[in-house]
Write a structure and sequence with these properties.
Distance between the termini: 60 Å
Order of helices and strands: EEEEEEEEEEEEEEEEHEEEE
Largest sheet: 6 strands, mixed
Strand content: 35-45%
CATH architecture of the largest domain: Sandwich
Oligomer: single chain
Structural class: mainly beta
Shape: elongated
Helix content: under 10%
Length: 275
């Protein structure tokens, strides 16, 4: 009986599944599958940034799925490298390594320009608006809002059609959020817009507080915003005598006030200025 070499038969991309599929001619030894043996990177740069994906072995043990943890970049080249030391169940290594350039092609080429909320804006009403730019607009979009920059904790994920603005029906809780938008229709989509961040302040006392002329915010200090809305135990307005310097991230935040403070009136917002 002639010896049959262990090799890769096909390599295909699926934008719908956000995956790369590989088929082998023999059953794969799952213990030899690793991120050192299977390397996937964008723009032919296999040092950084690498793509993030899961390696999934099919039930037939001959199909391998590389499932992206986030949407792959569309209409841009990826490089896939499969090392020879992947083995079949008989202990045979691959006949040769694989180096392949791949692309997730999409007919959606529009760019989305976010308009509101502005970066680092403090909002009460969660209204999002944007603009679609491109030769073939689709007027259909996906909006994602998360509490982290990696969008691992997504709190809003919706598709909006025939409009370029929306007000969320369920108010977000107080805190810092990140959002991104892309053009999307059916199973095709364009690139995500730049990620922006905003701060939600839902405290009723904060919203109803009338900020007088002597209540100011230093526009040059983006990193730490301290509003002069803090009262002492007698209900009188206090001034901030010392606070963390703009551009410096301390291990902890210490604020020194001129008098004893009323804790219920104390509101401090710390916003990340880069991400």
């Amino acid at each position: 009986m002639a010896y049959i070499k262990f090799c890769i038969l096909t390599v295909e991309t699926s934008l719908k599944d956000q995956s790369i599929y590989l088929t082998f001619n023999k059953e794969i030894d799952q213990t030899t599958l690793s991120y050192s043996n299977i390397v996937l990177a964008l723009n032919s740069n296999y040092i950084a940034p690498l793509a993030t994906y899961d390696i999934i072995l099919g039930d037939d043990l001959k199909t391998l799925q590389l499932k992206f943890k986030d949407a792959p970049a569309v209409n841009q080249p990826y490089i896939l490298m499969i090392q020879e030391n992947i083995k079949d169940l008989e202990g045979n290594t691959l006949d040769k390594s694989l180096l392949r350039y791949l692309e997730f092609k999409s007919n959606v080429t529009s760019d989305v320009i976010p308009k509101s909320p502005a970066n680092f804006e403090i909002v009460e009403e969660q209204k999002f608006s944007w603009e679609e730019k491109g030769d073939n607009p689709v007027n259909s979009f996906r909006l994602q809002v998360s509490t982290d920059t990696g969008f691992c904790n997504i709190v809003t994920d919706i598709v909006i059609k025939d409009q370029t603005s929306i007000v969320l029906g369920t108010p977000l809780k107080s805190g810092q959020y990140f959002y991104k938008i892309r053009a999307e229709v059916d199973d095709a989509f364009g690139p995500w817009c730049e990620t922006r961040t905003f701060l939600v302040q839902q405290d009723e006392e904060y919203q109803e507080q009338d900020v007088s002329d002597d209540s100011t915010i230093d526009d040059d200090k983006e990193d730490v915003i301290v509003e002069d809305l803090v009262n002492d135990v007698k209900g009188e307005r206090l001034t901030v005598e010392d606070s963390p310097k703009s551009g410096v991230t301390p291990a902890s935040f210490l604020f020194l006030f001129s008098e004893d403070i009323d804790p219920e009136s104390l509101q401090v917002s710390v916003i990340r200025s880069d991400f």
